[in-house]
Amino acid sequence: EVQLLESGGGLVQPGGSLTLSCAASGFTFSSYAMSWVRQAPGKGLEWVSVISGSGGNSYYADAGKGRFTISRDKSKNALYLQMNTLRVEDTAVYYCARAPVRGARMVALGFDNWGQGTLVTVSA
Amino acid sequence: QSALTQPPSASGSLGQSVTISCTGTSSDIGAFNYVSWYQQHPDKAPKLMISEVSQRPSGVPDRFSGSKSGNMAFLTVSGLQAEDEGDYYCSSYAGSNNLIFGGGTKLTVL
């Protein structure tokens, strides 16, 4: 059974930093791209970032470019999202999601498994 | 890139059918056959219901179907059941490993 378990959320002040983690199990981790998707309270889904199975390629939505860094550790079957210079508008539940790959297109097929999410609150 | 456009709400009676639309542009929905649909129940993670416009993942009832025409995509739920109530989101590949979501549609089963 595929399991994705996020952790690391919490309350942080504007301008601060936070690193989210996602522990993956039940599948061959390196065979899938992995992504972060967020959802602000009462709002819709927003794609944040994706990383290839090898970890060699990563892409970001405009909202996180230059501030967020996605990474993965194949020895730990773990996905990370380092978030710097956080803003109030980054407040959201952050989901880790598995992304089946078609060639070089890592987000085209959607996300077939999701974690339960971790809440990040950016507030003074 | 702007979010895809979905109606805020939709409704249908038990056993009836309902179709939810998702409007994009020639740079996303119109350019690629990579539209996905997700179901989300309150305080739960989203669940993939349709990928590649019309493909149902294993375990998704065949009451759920997807289609596309031009810059619009559609999710049809036939034989509505109480458990179908929830929020539905479309997404589309937009090139260069970029993905955009719709704003979501709240489906009410009457």
Keywords:
heterodimer, A: 124 residues, mainly beta, seven-stranded mixed β-sheet, four-stranded antiparallel β-sheet, 11 strands, globular, B: 110 residues, six-stranded mixed β-sheet, three-stranded antiparallel β-sheet, 9 strands, 44% strand
Describe this structure as you would to a colleague:
The complex is a heterodimer of chains A (124) and B (110). Chain A is mainly β and 124 residues long. In chain A, 0% of the residues lie in helices and 48% in strands. Chain A is built from no helices and eleven strands. Chain A has strands spanning 3-7, 10-12, 18-25, 33-39, 45-51, 58-60, 68-73, 78-83, 92-99, 113-114, 118-122. In chain A, strands 2, 4, 5, 6, 9, 10 and 11 form a seven-stranded mixed beta sheet that branches. Chain B is mostly beta strands and 110 residues long. Chain B has strands spanning 9-12, 18-23, 35-40, 47-50, 64-69, 72-77, 86-93, 99-101, 105-109. In chain B, strands 1, 3, 4, 7, 8 and 9 form a six-stranded mixed beta sheet that branches. A three-stranded antiparallel beta sheet of chain B has the order 2-6-5, with no helix packed on it. Chain B is globular. The mean pLDDT of chain B is 96. Chain A binds chain B through residues 37, 44-47, 50, 57, 59, 61-62, 95, 104-112, 114-117, and chain B through 1, 3, 32, 34, 36, 38, 40, 45-48, 51-52, 57, 89, 91, 93, 96-104.
